[in-house]
Amino acid sequence: xxxxxxxxxxxxxxxxxxxxxxxxxxxxxxxxxxxxxxxxxxxxxxxxxxxxxxxxxxxxxxxxxxxxxxxxxxxxxxxxxxxxxxxxxxxxxxxxxxxxxxxxxxxxxxxxxxxxxxxxxxxxxxxxxxxxxxxxxxxxxxxxxxxxxxxxxxxxxxxxxxxxxxxxxxxxxxxxxxxxxxxxxxxxxxxxxxxxxxxxxxxxxxxxxxxxxxxxxxxxxxxxxxxxxxxxxxxxxxxxxxxxxxxxxxxxxxxxxxxxxxxxxxxxxxxxxxxxxxxxxxxxxxxxxxxxxxxxxxxxxxxxxxxxxxxxxxxxxxxxxxxxxxxxxxxxxxxxxxxxxxxxxxxx
Length: 348
Ligand code: FA5
Known about the structure:
The protein is of the alpha+beta class. It contains 11 helices and 9 strands.
């Protein structure tokens, strides 16, 4: 081996070891300069070619070019390896691909909507049709046609939001009874869910916007026992057998006789004031009021051209959020409207 060939081989080996050990692009660049740059070791050897005898210069030039080609190949390979390694390092430090994925939270039907759907479903299975009505109604449908004339004190129970042109946001779903009976001859069997509005101060039991589900059945020979049977069946369907239902005599101008329907408070199980401490949910009564009910007043039947001598019927109006309090054991009705995802997911 000639001196030049030996020098080139030693230089190639040294270069290869250093290129392999380089930890970043900067080190590779400085190797490139040190060996192949204008003052680099290979360039120095190339300059020495001129001192060789003329017949050796060609081979010497070729040997140097071969080594330069090998060194450039090494530099390119080392650079590619560094880039691949740095991507893997970055990936490993930023993403732990073995970390268990967090379960995606899926949206669900709002609890109040679920109650409305379950209630409608129960009545639909018994042959009732679902009917909707306008939220802005004239006084006539809200009050007059329901046997509540202008000077009737019962209007005070429906403290309403008034709009222009004698319209008001309906304080109950009972106007739908009137609209349905005016539109269809008897017999009618409907369930009517919808939003209601009252100027009630908001507290644990009241909202200014809430939902009611109205029911109406008018046919020949309908009596209070039919009403009790259907509402007891509804409560059994929603709450199971754990809840009791009671009918309390009450007054509504559009029903006679009238009743309030209550279910046992799920918090104190109807005890009201166990060991002298008043239950915060039912106020110590042991019962939660769900809504009103009764036999449709003959004046209402007459108003819609139904003959009260031939037809009789029952009606009820339940608060959907109140059903929710009892069903989900929630102690504050406002929780249904605060859009708290933890609360909503827990009930779904
Ligand atoms: C009525 O609204 C009658 N229309 C119900 C009715 C229909 C009686 C058919 C007879 C025949 P009342 O004002 O009691 O009745 O309201 C019925 C239910 O709506 C209440 O028991 C309660 O569950 C719910 N409710 C009333 N006001 C509010 C409120 N501010 N916030 C939440 N729920 C309410």
